[in-house]
Amino acid sequence: MNPRRAAEQPTARPTRRTTGTSAERGDITRVEILALLSTAGPLDRRQIAKWLQLGVGTVHEHTRRLLEAGYLQALEPQSGTVGRPRIPLRIVPEAAATLGIRIATDHVVAVVVGLDGRMEASDVHPFDPAPAADPIAQLLRIIRGYLDDPALSPRLKAVGVATPDTVDPDTGYLRFAPRFGWTDFPLGRLLRDQLPLPVLVDNDLIASTTAELLYGAGREYDDFLVLALGDGVGLGAVLERRVHRGPGGLSSEFGHSPVRDTGVLCGCGARGCLETFTNDQGILREARRRGLATEDTDIAEIRTRAVAGDQGLLSLLADIGVILGRALAGVVNLLGTPTIAVIGENHALWPGLEPGFLDTMRTSPITAAHRVKVVVRPWHDSQHAHGAATLALGAPGTLTRE
């Protein structure tokens, strides 16, 4: 539902949907209020309640705490209103910030994000995930560099860390991270034991899906999917304004959906996984098979040539789009989600993927997939880190004391 239409409704929905799987992860209602005010400008409490489909009492309680903490500012009462004067509230973006960390196989992206969701700083740091290189010590050095900044440290309220592998969202525990060579790795605990701030560790797609809920498609829709294309293929889902999670963080692994009986061996140990056809290596493998690439060709060159209109590559991408569309059509038809936001390093390949993708999605006019809307987001390496910083705002104790 479009929140602008929701704002015209006479009453809010009676129940509140929140992001997360346990109370320990905090309630992002306050983050939603901040995100709304950062995009819509000053609003009074009744307007906030209608936009976010919350009870007015709930909004009063959350905004009271945010005002007491100095994160919101009350403006002059509105004149000419009937009944009790309505007091617009504005966000104070400089009052606090969070640090977002995204771990990749050879580097770490760190961003500082203000209360309005805008990135104030973005840096790339070298990183070696090998256990022998002591990855925790490397991460702590990076984070402490920001904590030691006298101009920034008083504003920092939490640290969010995003990784591309399965994470238990309540503990920050990584069961299996083949990209890094980590198994049964208590990343969250090891960082929390050494840092004075709340630390939240989560999957990078979950983090970016949360940012999309707060600042992207969530401004218009309560239900949508986030398709991440890159060295893997992931799918985030927002259902009734709730970021879907499986038990223990076992969700978003869309790339391991079986689409063929045979195929190259996937990193998960199975064959025929979707991502072996649609990720970086899958695209390069098929390009080499068709004589469109050599062993020295990398995915960056494929992107450049596809954007330039290389017809052979566009034909290849259309075929891969068919595979992707077949896998995603079932999800869309099951959930009825009207929108898909495409993110990730390979978002630039979408014009080539789209013809095959949409032809497959729209084979039946009576399905939800037939009417799906696709929105392609500009992408930068810092986006997952931004999502981690955004998610950290909802961690217990980040914004206000309970």
TrEMBL record:
Sequence ranges assigned to domain HTH arsR-type in this UniProt record: 29-72
Pfam family name, one: ROK
Domain of life assignment: Bacteria
InterPro entries: ArsR-like_HTH, ATPase_NBD, HTH_ArsR_DNA-bd_dom, ROK, WH-like_DNA-bd_sf, WH_DNA-bd_sf
SUPFAM superfamilies: Actin-like ATPase domain, Winged helix' DNA-binding domain
Location of region: Disordered: 1-24
Compositional bias annotation for Low complexity: 1-21
Similarity-based family: Belongs to the ROK (NagC/XylR) family.
Protein name in UniProt: ROK family protein
Source species of the chain: Streptomyces vulcanius
Lineage of the species this protein comes from: Bacteria, Bacillati, Actinomycetota, Actinomycetes, Kitasatosporales
